[in-house]
Each structure stands twice: as structure tokens, then as C-alpha cells.
């Protein structure tokens, strides 16, 4: 049985002594470190670190860790940081349109226990995949979208997300552009899968564009959603070989497998609190 | 010992009976077919075929095959076609600038006998790699390029290429834009390696751009050179994973390995007469 | 809308004129060939071919094609061959034990229409995955297996398979050794997924063995089941990188994704009648 | 310009406080840490760490670091450790037989400056590749090997290696089994490339065996040489897809590219002091 742990994700301007200060803080308070990884970006001179320790003998109470870490460590180094507890299951909302392959694959990981999360509901702008949600007893909310009702529907969605304490949103081939207003409300908390190896083939119908260009490999990219379309920080990318004998429909079929695996890898990292985004790039710890 | 063979590469509008007509033509003239592959592009309704047969019992003399095939087969089907003989070694000119990894790898394949070709000379806009050419006793022509002398230097190169009966040119990280005039003279006969997975990161410094974009895979693309920069028919693409811990210099170092292998695969296909380009895409036979 | 087609898969000792004879047979009877691929194995001097043609104007009735092809072509060349019609949906039985990832992935492809097949039932030696079968309204037969009842249970399974006209069986992580008697009854019709890159790590617990050996890549192999354990003709193999930081449980988790994708690729080829097995090797057409 | 650095590679039984002790040691003596990576193997409860720091302001003289580290840190934690200085170029001996692709590729990396090493000499049991050594002005020693002279020749080689202060040996497709006596003299200091994805196809002619088995992917493995043939700790593995149309000669040709790239990756890690071997497995830091 895995013991309860806490994870600190932090970044700050690089300087000497950060690792020492953090490991001292944990060691002196009887926190048994089971994971420590760090990275220094040479160009921006930023330091990134993820540390995980067991809570059972830790001398600082769970509810006090934030205050103590901020006071004793973070402010000295001008850190930005997040604290997560392994006992808190992530609450994830899934957005879909009509294609089921990514949703299906996520439901498998959820239902088989690979992902220890809650999926309080699924949102869609179409009603097509309701049957799948029902198979797994997950509420399915249908928000038909038009130019006229978009602001209103997004507001309703935001209410739903907040009422359900959603930690992050996965766009599992959700074919709607999300407004800036919505994105700001969940900044860094929306993960998308785009069906090309970005930055090639931004926008709609990337497989058609890839086929027209005559590429010999196709790809998929999972990234955080920002206000610039398909331009947010990349978390994971996958590719597959194609040949002249593959039609657009073959690109789409082969692509589905890359999309679902690539998205799942990114979501797995998010669940494990292993991603730090900075300057439109990500640090993804092992 | 491999017997002498002939290869026909052909394409034409698709219709019934093409394979049958070609195989009949070879069979009735005692040509033993050792390779036959075909492809029909559904969108353009074009038919593509590569057939290779042994010449030793073939009833039509080598010098007459072109005439007979054109008369008896090609004109009926409105074919474009090329005939190649395995006994004719390809004559390949290599263009380089300052980076040696692709040149080096090509020289290995040439010198070890993996590629049964002639390399009559190496061209460069710099003198840096002369020592390498000298190691392998290959003439090295240095053509310094300026805006002023470009037309003149390219004319001199064309003369050199023609005098040496060059079959095709390989730009092995040649960092000069070639004029339309030159490209037309060797249309479909110039193979480039670009250091990105096209169409992402066209133009100069693609690894810097890839790093700035925060991609999780880098690539290389070998393609025929056309008048649109980095937009010609793609022959082969390769990729490599990168992580947040890779600096631009790591992208460049890892990229070199992908570049040389990707270029070598494309050149190998060209040597074996296995590529047909059509509508800015390629059919690359196994 | 795709027109109804027929597929011939054939192999025979190589000689001149086979392609010509088959294409003549189809052409003269107004069969529009939409796919033709062939392969000659140099070592065994065997010729392999797959040809697919549209039936709508074909002059020979569906029920007569077998007879005519055997009489007019096959016996001349000493061919082994199979005939398939696109209109006949394959009937596939799935065998599972306790792990759901491959079953789940297959059910997605079935239910979403990616695979145009029937799944008349699922067989298992445990009752764990019944809920999944029920979600998709597929009969689930539980055959508990002991040393004592094995022969009896397999006999009951064979009866079930025959009553349901099963075309082929997929062992989707079915953790039971099947008897020679059973294998002979469905020779060349049982596809397994083994969780290693065969021939490494034959038998049970391959991820544990791979971890102990300290490999840097893990794999999965889909193959036809023969009487030699994990030694049948390989259809498809996939791999994934691992590092020293991956524990056995990580190997297992990463491996599941490779297993399901590798198995799906193999089953897709089987559904499309693109595999010929010969001398414990497979020819897998594009 | 990169400043001179020192690297410590260490491993010991896991316990709390190791990272803290090492970072304290460096911090208090004004060593600016530029790289720190660690790994704990859950099964063996061993802790592994690599730390690199700049020497320019370090308060402990280069010649004293070993003594101080052993006294103040290593003995407390029962550590095994190695100290390396970036200013000391590695001295590498290359062993070859008749195939040149790996040697060639290594010479490119050496000569182009990708590898900042010395290659004092090349050893071979044949004279075939002398011309290549001469092109690069590297001494080439031909040691013909027979059952009778093996012990004597290996003794002569050991003398040569010691006289030249060789840090490690690369078997770049050296097709001779090395005696236990020799291996013990350079334990953990001999890197081999085997032309299969180990542990599949141990021993000679792995491509022939792979072809006979009908695999769909081939591979190469770089590993440390131990007394058990092809069974030493694996450093790096690579693979390439193959199809039914690939003959054994195609396996060999495609394999050469994987071999040279896989070997180069392993040697690069060795040069950078990024590998720790333990219990027949390796920790390979990023």
C-alpha cells in the first residue's frame, strides 16, 4: 500500500542553494523524500523542481504546509509553487464532440483503475456520445452551441465546473473554439489533443492538409489551451509513419490511435502533478 | 551474382488492363519479372507502377526497349515513364557548406560499397570540407557565393554537372538558396535534407524555432527541391524525441543523426529507381 | 459507397506468368482490379499475391468463382488460395482472462464501426469482465478451467465456436495454454497478443523478466497461435522506450498501450484479408 | 566557454539525507551545482546520484576532492563512487574486425569535434580497415587471432592499453570472444554493440536468426561486456521496422544504421560520465 504523499512543484530564478534549502526543510521535519527531480533552463535562468515526500512522520500538519513552505522557503527564492496531496483525487471534466476514440480510451483508464480520478461529468456540443456516458453512469451534459448562445452556454458550463470542483478539463477531440473568457477562468487547466504534430497543420482538417502536403509521418500533440489557437505549451507528441498508399481516411484511422495514446500520456502526467509550464514551454518530469 | 536488370517507372490515368498489358509485354518477350509494385491514387485517379525484369533472355535489345515500350504500351495508356538499367551506375554530385555529418555518412556508404554509385565531385560554397574530399580522392570544387556572382557561379556549376553526366544532385546540408534557373535544369533531380519535420519550421534555424516552440519531437525531411522553398515533394521523414532538458545545441546534435539517416534512406531509394513524384507528392516503392 | 469486392489470397512456387494469368482471368471477365500486391520470397522461391476486384460487372457468379479459379488458374500453378467477399462480415470470438485493456480497445473499434465485424460472444476463464460484455450486449461465457476439466471445457468451446460460425479467435490477454487439439481445429485462425518483443521473454511474466534483464525497450507481439508456445508466425510487433526509473509496474502500464495497439493492427489486417502465413512467417500486405 | 567541472557518480544503500549531505558539501565549499540527478531503485533499495559542479570557486583543490569526499561523505553512507574532471579527455581504444560502419561513424564524431576524446589507436584481428585508420592518422594494430595465440595476443593488447592510459574500450563490431582474464582487467570499461534487441538472438548471426523467426522489427543493443556472452548491463537499444519483403541482406543493411546510432548514443553517455551499472542493470542519466 502506497503511503500518503505530498508533492511540491516549484520554479524560481536560478541561484545556488535551492535544492539544499528544500531538502533541509523536508529532512529536518522528518519528511521522507521518495522523488526529487530538478531542471535548470539555461536560457531563461529559471530553476524547476518537483519533490514528493511521505506524510506519515512529517512534523508539519497538512493544513500548515503551505504557510510554512511559503514563509520559510518560497519567499526567500521568489518561488512560484503548487502543493498537491496524493489522497486528493483529481476531478476531471471531459469535453467531446462526435468522435469517441479519446473518450473511450479515457473511460477505460478511469474504469479499470489505471487513473485514480473522478469524472463528475462529460460535456458535449452534440448528443451523439450520450450512450457511452450512460454505459459508465457518468452524467452527460449537452450544450448545443451557436454563435448566438455561445457566451451563455459557456457561462453555464463555468457554473457547472465550479459547482463540481473540477481540477482540470480535457478536450478529447472537442471541436469548438473556446472563448478567451473561459480559457482565463481555467488557465493552465485545459488540456487539448490536436491531430497533427504541431506547429504543422494548425486549425481544422489537419489530416487533409497533411495528405495534400504528402508527408511521410503524421502526428498528434497534447497541449495546454491558451488564447492562441493550437499554440499553447506542448506536453506530449506522438507520430506514426504513413505511405503513399494511405488515403486521407487512413490518416484519420491511424491518427486516432496516436491521438488517444498521446492524450492519455499527457493526462497521466497531469494527474501525477509532473508538469510545469513556463514561457509557453513545459517541463515534464519523469 | 545479380543478373543485369531493367526498371520501368511509369504513371498514367488509371484504367483497366494496364498491369496486364505491361506483364504481357514482358512475358511474351521472355523478360523474367523479379519485382512488380503498383499504386493507384484514388483522388487523382492516377496509376503508378514499377516493374523490374532480368535482361539476359529478353528478346528486345537494350537499345530498342524504349522505342518498343513507347509504341506498344505507353502511347495506348498516355503514360509518362522512365527506363533504367542496373548496369548503369548513377553519377551523383554532392553539395555541402560547412557541416560534415551528411557528407561523411554518404562517403561511408559510397566507399564501403553500400551504394554502387560514382561521385565525380563535391561542390561547396566554402572550402572547409576539402580535407574530407581529399581523404577519399574526390575532386572538391569551391564556388564562393555572393549576391553579385551567384548567376555566374551557378552557370559554371551547370557546366560542370553536364560535363560529368550527373544523374542527380544531393544537397547534404547545402546552405544556399538555388535559383529557379538552376532548379529547372535539374527538375526532379535535386534531393535536399531539411532539418525539421516539414511543413513545420520552413527556412533557416529550424532547431532554434523548434526549441522556442517547445516541441517534444524534432525531425528531418528529405525532399525534391522545387522553386518553393522547402515545399517540394517529400521522400522520407524521420523524428527523434526531445525533452525539456535538451538545449538548442542538443536539438542540433540529436538532429544530425536523424538528418543523415533520413537523407541516406531517400538517396538509397533514388539510386534504386523507386521514387515517382506526381502533384507534389511521391510514390516510394518498397 | 464502396462496391462489393472479392479478395483472392494465393501462394505457389514461383514461376513466370503468374501475375499475367491472374490479371488476364480477371480482366477478361470484367473484374475491375482495385488492389494488387505480390511478393516473392527469394529463399523459399514462393510467390505470394493478394488481388481485390469489384464484383458488380464480373461475369462469373459469386458461387462459381471458386470452381473457375481452381480449374483455370490455381491447378496450373499448384496454388494454395483463399477467396473472401467484402460483403461477408467476419465473425470474431474474443477470449479474455482478467485484464481488460485489449478487450476494451477491441470493443471500441467494433462499436464505433472502425471494424465491420460481428462479435457473437466473449469467452473467459474468469467471470471478472462480464460487466464489460454486458455494457455492449455481447454474450459472455464463463468457462472455469482446471487441469481436470480442460478437455471437456475446450470441447464445449469448440461446439460454441462452430455453432456460431466463428471465422477467427482473438486471445486478448487470455492467460491459458490452449491444447493442441483445439489449436488444430482453428489452425491459422487464432491470433494472440504476447507481452514481449518475441522471441525474447517467451512464457509467463515477460515484463518481470525484461525488468530483471535491464532492457531499455519493451514490446508486444501479435502472432498466430501454433502448438509451440509463443512461437507462431508473427503478424505485428510494437515497442516502447523504458528507462531505469521505470519499475515493473511501469513496464506493465506502458506495455498495455503497446499491446492493445499492436493487437488491433494485427486484427485489422486479418479482417481485411491481408495476411498470408507460410513456413512460420507472415506476408502482411499494405 | 564552458567552465571546468567535476562530476561525482555515486551509489549506496538508500537512506534519508543523502542528497542533503552531498549538496551541503558542495554548497559550503562554494561549488556551483549545474546538474543533479538521482534515482532510487525500489527493489534493491539502492540510491544512485550524479552531480556536476563548477570548479572555479570551489574551495577544495582538485587533488584533494577524493580524500575529502571519502572522509566527509562517502564513508558515512557506505558509498561506491567515481570522480571525473571535464578537463581530462577520455582516451578510447576502438576494436574492429571487417565491418566499417560503426568505426566510420565514431571517426566522424571524433574528427568533427562532437566527441572531445582521444583515440590513441585502433585494434583489429584483421588488416582490412587499416586504410581507414590511416585516413585519420590513427595508429592501427593488427592482432591476428588463433586459438593458439589468443592468450599471448590479448596480453600484448593489455600492455598496449595500459601504456596508452586507455579509459575505456569500444567493440565496434569486433567479432571475437574476449577472455575472462581480459574482461576482468577492464571490468565495466568495455562497451559492445550487439546486432539484435537483446536478449533475443544472442550469439552469432542474429539477423539470420531474426529473419528465420519472421520478426517485424530488428534491433541493436549496446552493453557493457561481462563474462556471460551478450548478457552484460544494457546501456541503449534501438529498433527498426522490417517487412516480409526484407531479405536477410536488407536486415543487415538496415541494421547497420541502428547499430551505429545505438553505439554512438551509448558511447556519448560514457564520455559524459552519465552511466552507473549495478546488479547487471544500468542507470543512465539524462
Key features of this structure:
homotetramer, 286 residues, alpha/beta, Alpha-Beta Plaits, Rossmann fold, eight-stranded mixed beta sheet, four-stranded antiparallel beta sheet, 14 strands, 33% helix
Outline:
Chain A has 286 residues and is of the alpha/beta class.
Describe what this molecule looks like in 3D.
4 copies of one chain form a homotetramer. Helix content of chain A is 33%, strand content 29%. Chain A has 286 residues and is α/β, with parallel strands linked by helices. The first copy, chain A, has 2 domains: 5-85, ACT domain (Alpha-Beta Plaits), CATH 3.30.70; 90-284, Rossmann fold (3-Layer(aba) Sandwich), CATH 3.40.50.170. In chain A, the strands form 3 sheets. In chain A, strands 5, 6, 7, 8, 9, 10, 11 and 12 form an 8-stranded mixed beta sheet that branches. A 4-stranded antiparallel beta sheet of chain A has the order 2-3-1-4, covered by helices on one side. A two-stranded antiparallel ribbon of chain A has the order 13-14. The model of chain A has no long low-confidence stretch (mean pLDDT 96).
